[in-house]
Automatic annotation (TrEMBL):
Keyword Hydrolase: yes
Name of the protein in its database record: Peptidyl-tRNA hydrolase ict1, mitochondrial
Keywords: Hydrolase
EC number(s) per entry: 3.1.1.29
Keyword flag Hydrolase: yes
Transmembrane segments: none
GO molecular function: peptidyl-tRNA hydrolase activity
EC class name: hydrolase
Superkingdom assignment: Eukaryota
Amino acid sequence: MRVKCFRNFHRLYASLLTFDGLLERRLNTLRVLYLRTSSVNLRSSDNKDDDGQGYKLKLQRKDSIGQVDSQVRKKLWTRWTECKQSEIPRWIYDFHVLSAEWIAEDVRHKILQRENNRVNKNGELVLSSMKYSSQLKNLEDAVQKVEMIVEEASYVPKETTPEKKAHVRKLVKEANVKRLRVKRYLSDKKSDRKQQ
């Protein structure tokens, strides 16, 4: 694998991470990792627009053959954790939920509570995407999953109006009256059987 193809890596994926600008602004805290690749270092000379710092791209290798190989290539795992600013995004998002300052604290706790099956013992939220045969589309799909999780956790329901509360109380009363009426009817029916 040549380093040349990763020249505009940070630009290419920065355009995908747009959740109200939050993910784009916090791009330095996300790391991305492709499966079925090897380790590559990006030097400053390979990036025209950088500020002189070298980029290091950590990639994981997965050996397999045949049909399994093609499935592994397109699979994408996402994690969230804090990473160094010198690292560019990887296909695994390492994202530690509690240390993400770009998300409100109550939302972070909601994410941990709601997504407890996806959070590992280190407090990292782990997602995977294998929807498409393209890894770029799988990255986009994984980012959409992250957006959806953050949106759902940050949703605040509207307050119920007094008119709505009164209407609900009325419906509950009517339902109770109907339930008692049916119960009495069935009770009378059984007692009539015993008398005969």
